[in-house]
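User: I've been going back and forth on whether these two constructs are worth ordering. Before I decide, could you fold them both?

Assistant: Sure. I'll take them in the order you sent them. The first construct and its structure tokens:
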Amino acid sequence: MGFTIAIAGATGNVGREMLDILAERGFPVDTIVPLASRRSVGQEVSFGDKTLKVQALENYDFSTTDICLMSAGGSVSKEWAPRIGAAGCVVIDNSSAFRYDPDVPLIVPEVNADAIEGFTKKNIIANPNCSTAQLVVALKPLHDAATIKRVVVATYQSVSGAGKEGMDELFAQTRAVYVADPVEAKKFTKRIAFNVIPHIDAFMEDGSTKEEWKVMAETKKMLDPKIKVTCTAVRVPVFIGHSEAVNIEFENEITADQAREILREAPGCLVVDKHEDGGYTTPYESAGEDATYISRIREDQTVDNGLNMWVVSDNLRKGAALNTVQIAEILVNRGLITPKRQAA
């Protein structure tokens, strides 16, 4: 007996990745339904060796569907997630629409899987921001070992975090540079080709951007509200894979060697940390991989009990689609949901 799964936003980068990961991981699916806006109806997407036609989200009846994996943007989620949840279908939402709702669990399975039990309040579970997801996977085992006081993080985020339009803009601008055509900035506020932009999402009153605030607020909600977090989020000319330079201050003593051993044993983490040329991971190597890679682990001599490290992950996978599927797996493996209808 398998589940009926809907994918809202199935034609986008993350939606397609969700379909691939469900197939790769052998999720117990009987029926899978790709959904998108009316203009995408009839488009084809792949699920394993099957080709599926996209249906309209607004016309779909969720009453016989078990789980909806949602990656259609915040405004769509705000409108549709409560309706879908009310129809008895559990929504796992990839947008920021419900992350800060106290009645909606915000989940990274390696970090706070037990919090998932609260999903019954609204039948909605939130997936964190892509840069937060990989960060907390790396922080959780270290926090358990030595108690984190403060985190300072600078993110180096790929253009795929801004969707297909972001990837297309980097490609088009790079080509324009090489053939001496005018470089047009449409999706991003400045040229992204051969450049970096210290601006992701809208500016807030204190001068931070919404992206930087998300990292702070989500880390506190999932890991520990007492941790102080500050972030600078930067867009870089990389197609896939977010990187982070992370400085951590602990309550208790912890050495780089101890941190390395802890992280080697931690779920979801892969340590690549050799003090030699190329002995670290870059976003290029992380693309298409599930792990959160951790490199450049070293002690910070400027503070007591401080460490620096470099954290890299595929933002479309662990930062979005993979984490969403892992949440669905927890629901199934813990028996928190059962299929609404028997397999045909």
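The second construct, handled the same way:
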Amino acid sequence: MSLAGRTLLMSGGSRGIGLAIAVAAARHGANVILLAKTDAPDPRLSGTIHTAAAEIEAAGGSALAVVGDVRDEASVQRAVERGAERFGGIDIVVNNASALAVDGTDTLSMKRFDLMADIQLRGTYLLTSKALPHLRQGTDPHILSLSPPLNLSPAWLGAHPAYTMAKYGMTLLTLGWAAEFADHGVAANCLWPETYIATDAVKNILGGEAAIERSRSPEIVADAAVAILQRPANECTGNTFIDAEVLRDAGVTDLSRYGGTGELRYDIFVDPPHDPSPGERARRETHEEPPC
């Protein structure tokens, strides 16, 4: 399905992965509604909702910037109503807005806990539920949440339980919608980076310039998102996708264009591949089942 003429509603999107997805969709002729708080420049962050809208327009799409908070019901309702009025409907919802704090339980403040829960859970639920009447009438409607696979390894469950709960909550909501709306033709999928992505969050929270050097560019997530959103909704739903796997499935075998000058750092919740043990290798070669 072409994205030309279809309308995408996104939370956040002033910078980083969200902006890259919006610009990539615009190159394919999509309309983009942005709901974000960044009305004025912030010295700690790159871009505002207005500079993002300008980039979308420059890429060939149409943009509507709605200043507001995804946690606020009135803001979300306003973005949905204004976007549907301007573009005639809403075909795609991208749950992009997120807060990141990887502190442990003994150091994380309740303010940060509430922020993550409110943006990731309440915001994702609000944006999707308010847009749902338009999605049901939309062209090949999709819900796409930037949230991870449900990796229940104790290493991840114990690393930062509050952040894990907030991001896994986005995934559970999205997989729930895939089941709930299956008979309505509304697809719901999750997308997550295989590696760190060069964003302000990675630079400011996860390791500075050293982390950026081990990161791919946001365009890898954007290209994967476009590939998913172009798939028929009735054939592509209920998945937790990894960006690199989506592109490899689409025939993109050389990912070097997406950067990373050092050894790439696998993202949170993504286990790096490992060399199989001799026993595992033998079982794979003989197609034997592993012992219980």
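Notes on the second construct follow. Residues 110-136 form the longest helix (27 residues). The domain at 7-286 is CATH 3.40.50.720 (Rossmann fold).
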